[in-house]
Design goal:
Layout: H1 5-12, H2 22-27, E1 36-40, H3 46-53, E2 57-62, H4 65-77, E3 83-87, E4 100-106, H5 114-127, E5 128-139, H6 145-152, E6 154-157, E7 160-162, E8 170-172, H7 178-182, E9 186-196, E10 206-215
Parallel strand pairs: 1-2, 1-4, 2-3, 4-5
Antiparallel strand pairs: 5-10, 6-7, 7-8, 9-10
Bound molecules: S-adenosylmethionine.
């Protein structure tokens, strides 16, 4: 990224400077430039821009207009024709089957109910092509914020809290080992579950679960995810 942080914030109103997620950077070891990539819940588009600059054909979806407008303005001024930006609800989105080479979904499943995340996950697993790669992260059971939520917010589903004054309104903290279990029919290329600083170093420790995994060729995707 050649554009300065100050101008990103001043000119486009970005809340944060562009900084690709460390998981997105790690995923470059397993994916090929030129391939199609769906960025689910792209937000302001730090990872969409990162992948587009590396030559991927990116479809970026989110339903927060203010974020998408910033990304659109940035795209207009910079040469990034390989990002297609769509405003849609990622829970009800019609994910095309066997379509994308790569699906990136970072810190999005934790902004919805557990049941919504798991239903969406079935569609995501079917939307990536056989031999395609899914990159995913969620806040987990180790996150220090979980304590505040369990004390002050209403639990509406297992490990899912409703907090009206929170930007996401709903927070789901994925359980121990659950992300790995949900992808047991995929080949796991990288997995991490633990405490780690957030990417802007605002919080020294966040509880995160990360996965990079590949859909097996010739295997039917497991659509029964009951725990
Ligand atoms: C914590 S942010 C993560 C953004 C980005 N993936 C990143 O890692 O920087 C969560 C994003 O998911 C989006 N999101 C949450 N629920 C959504 C839904 N049901 N439909 C579309 N976007 C959603 C929010 O608008 C927000 O941009």
């Amino acid at each position: 990224m050649t554009i300065s942080t100050t101008s990103l914030i001043k000119k486009y109103g970005f809340e944060y400077p562009f900084k690709p997620d460390s998981l997105a950077k790690k995923a470059l070891n397993f994916i090929k430039s030129g391939n199609s990539l769906l960025d689910i819940g792209c937000g302001e588009g730090a990872d969409s821009v990162f992948f587009a600059e590396k030559g991927f054909r990116v479809v970026a979806i989110d339903n927060t207009n203010i974020y998408l407008d910033r990304l659109r303005a940035f795209q207009r001024d910079n040469h990034l024709p390989n990002i297609s930006i769509q405003n849609c609800d990622v829970i009800s989105y019609s994910y095309p089957q066997n379509y994308y080479d790569i699906i990136n979904c970072l810190l999005v499943g934790c902004c919805m109910k557990r049941s919504e995340f798991e239903n969406m996950l079935v569609s995501i697993k079917q939307s990536v092509k056989p031999n395609g790669v899914i990159i995913m992260s969620l806040r987990n059971y180790l996150d220090p914020e979980l304590k505040d939520y369990s004390n002050s917010a209403k639990m509406i589903e297992p490990n899912t809290y409703l907090k009206k004054d929170d930007c996401c309104k709903i927070r789901y903290f994925i359980e121990k080992g659950r992300l790995k279990e949900l992808f047991k029919d995929f080949n796991i290329l990288y997995y991490f579950e633990g405490l780690t600083p957030d990417k802007y170093n605002e919080f020294p420790k966040r509880g995160d679960s990360y996965i990079i995994c590949r859909r097996k060729i010739g295997n039917k995707v497991n659509t029964n995810l009951t725990s």
